[in-house]
Design brief:
Helix content: 40-55%
Distance between the termini: 49 Å
Number of strands: 9
Largest sheet: 7 strands, parallel
Number of helices: 8
Radius of gyration: 18 Å
Strand content: 15-25%
Order of helices and strands: EHEHEHEHEHEEHHEHE
Number of domains: 1
CATH class: Alpha Beta
Bound molecules: NADPH dihydro-nicotinamide-adenine-dinucleotide phosphate, 2-hydroxyethylsulfonic acid
Strand order of the largest sheet: 3-2-1-4-5-6-9
CATH architecture: 3-Layer(aba) Sandwich
Length: 254
């Protein structure tokens, strides 16, 4: 029986790479995000090239009603979700707290924290009914440390850290695994979004060292979900060789 994997934020970066890797390995993937054109081209690619199949759910994780409607729309062949990857998220802006833009704050908290909770709440009852499942939350080193101007993004990822620990406790009785993967810097569209479309500024975040890329994170998500049934990676912090933590990056390749 093929596994079914629901990935939020599959239109770009980590989520897109995760969808490709799981479908390549024979899993059926439910790919989600707000950009329907990207979801459609990823679905076409997966359905024509990979052994797993793709199904699209296009919704904004910030709307609880849209999340519920999307999950409710799944027919029986897609409702047995084995793995949920809570990946959709963003940083918006990089400002001192006293200069922060409250629209940026709302976006980060509503997406990274409330969105993750809404999707989880919609999917968990299916996993409880099955008596198994695996939730992988994409946190960040920003959920382990706080850096200058990171304020609200760091707070949102500290919330993911806390929610992951709490979910593991609450779901223990149901045999549902909960893993947090907390990456450092990886080159995706993340910094372009953080800097509101400023591509040059985004590039500078990765200058002088080799950051991780989306396929690195996909490999770790896949690894953590293919361990023996009795094992669960609780928390996995990962950076590239050039990064020690949020503060120390060896940019000597400038
Ligand atoms: P990208 O910007 O490349 O991808 C972000 C994904 O999230 C997109 O598919 C986007 O889809 C989706 N998304 C954003 N907002 C929403 C929303 N409101 N509703 C639904 N989907 C949404 O960034 P990454 O791949 O790098 O980021 C993925 C996750 O990894 C995020 O949670 C991020 O915080 C985390 N992370 C990233 C790191 C990095 O250095 N890149 C390091 C540590 C953690 P769409 O716009 O189509 O809705
Ligand atoms: C993304 C990594 O260092 O920008 O979560 O916080 S960082």
């Amino acid at each position: 029986m093929k596994k079914t994997v629901l990935i939020t934020g599959a239109t770009s970066g980590f989520g897109e790479a995760i969808a490709r890797l799981f479908s390549k390995n024979g899993c059926n993937v439910i790919i989600t995000g707000r950009r329907l054109d990207r979801l459609q081209s990823l679905k076409n690619e997966i359905n024509s090239q990979q052994s797993g199949k793709a199904h699209i759910l296009c919704f904004d994780v910030r709307s609880n009603q849209d999340v519920l409607d999307a999950i409710e729309s799944l027919d029986a062949s897609w409702r047995k979700i084995d793995v949920l990857v809570n990946n959709a998220g963003l940083a918006s802006g990089l400002d001192l707290v006293q200069n922060g833009n409250t629209e940026d704050w709302d976006k980060m908290i509503d997406t990274n924290v409330k969105g993750l909770l809404y999707v989880s709440k919609a999917v968990i009852p299916m996993m409880i009914e099955q008596g198994k499942g695996h939730i992988v939350n994409i946190g960040s080193t920003a959920g382990k440390e706080v850096y200058e101007k990171g304020n609200v993004y760091c707070a949102s990822k500290h919330a993911v850290d806390a929610i992951s620990k709490a979910m593991r406790i609450d779901l223990l009785q149901h045999g549902i695994k909960v893993t947090q993967i907390a990456p450092g810097a990886a080159e995706t569209e993340f910094s372009i979004v953080r800097f509101h479309g400023d591509v040059e500024r985004a590039k500078q975040a990765y200058s002088g060292y080799r950051p991780m890329d989306a396929t690195d994170i996909a490999e770790l998500v896949y690894y953590s979900t293919t361990l023996p049934a009795h094992l669960c990676i609780n928390d996995l912090v990962v950076t590239s060789l050039g990064q020690a933590n949020s503060f120390y990056i060896n940019r000597s390749q400038e």
